[in-house]
């Protein structure tokens, strides 16, 4: 009996020792060696340089990089900063997606610390097991509490990014860099913007208004004056074959960008004769045909009437809209006019956008503070504009980066210009707060 007890103790000790060894092995596996970190940095940097060079239309060369951890305690992101351009990008080390990019270096002054990335506008550094906000240096919480609170969020953020990518892990990116971006050990950088994908067959760099209603150089875009505003318009046939002239998009008064985008969205289905989203009663209210350079009242214009009808179903007359409130206003508009077989739905972030566009359905996106890039009328260069407030835009296409991942969405910003194609406005996928799209 005594021998059996001793044997049991030995067996238990061996099992515990094995388990402890396995546990140590697992923990060590979660921490990269200096050599592994350097290799990951090299791969991430080369991919980021390639994607950013294409995006900006000029060479992006990382002069400073820094590994960034998320709340799974893993090195899942990489900061890349080009000193000459004074521009940074944060790349996902598993999916190859650029999570965000902007001017400056958000981690400047903290590169000697262990740094964390919690998504857009969430930057932290670790000191004595506590996390501090980089924005103002204030104490956030302990690293252990942050992991407990935000681990699931980090996992979901990563899963969303990987879902749209052919890359599923760091090894996939390494293999791609080794085979596609290196030639005899030298990185290959490709310039020029990514090819665009649209919800119908239009050429890349075409002048796209309300998806495909008008194409041509800016100088040939006809305009009309409506109560002091200059806006573009487009010609189309309706019902009896007679010609109606109608504004492409209504005037954005008092911050009604969400309603402007909704009007453009409904006109897309109406003009392509996909669904009757503008009833005959509204056309009957449009008493005057527009003429180039003429002066007209909004009560005469179909898109302005649709705009005002939708806005009437929205609190604050359509200003301060969100993806939830615009969805509700559209559905109330459908209900008012007895329009059936179609309804609006909404989602947070960019969820559902790519699949909708692939199926031929444009959408509305809502963004906050971010950079917009729009095409100049030379059809080659792009202008950057910082958006210092929330905005909603009609969205009809997207770009794929070098690794076939959705990178930016292409929108009509709802503005007019003699020198820019606001109808081809690019915004980073990760800047999108929410979207509205149609179900039918």
End-to-end Cα distance, whole Å, is 77 Å
Strand content: 25-35%
SS-based structural class? alpha+beta
Shape: elongated
Q: What does the model show?
A:
The protein is an alpha+beta fold and 440 residues long. It is 31% helix and 29% strand. It has nine helices and 23 strands. It has helices at 2-30, 34-56, 143-163, 170-181, 257-271, 280-285, 302-312, 323-336, 353-358, and strands at 64-69, 75-82, 87-92, 98-103, 114-117, 123-127, 130-133, 139-142, 182-183, 186-187, 196-198, 223-226, 229-237, 243-247, 295-296, 343-348, 363-367, 370-376, 382-387, 391-400, 406-412, 420-428, 432-439. Strands 11, 16, 17, 18, 19, 20, 21, 22 and 23 form a nine-stranded antiparallel beta sheet that branches. The longest helix has 29 residues, at 2-30.
What is shown here, in short?
It is built from nine helices and 23 strands. The protein is of the alpha+beta class and 440 residues long. The longest helix is centred in the N-terminal third of the chain and has 29 residues.
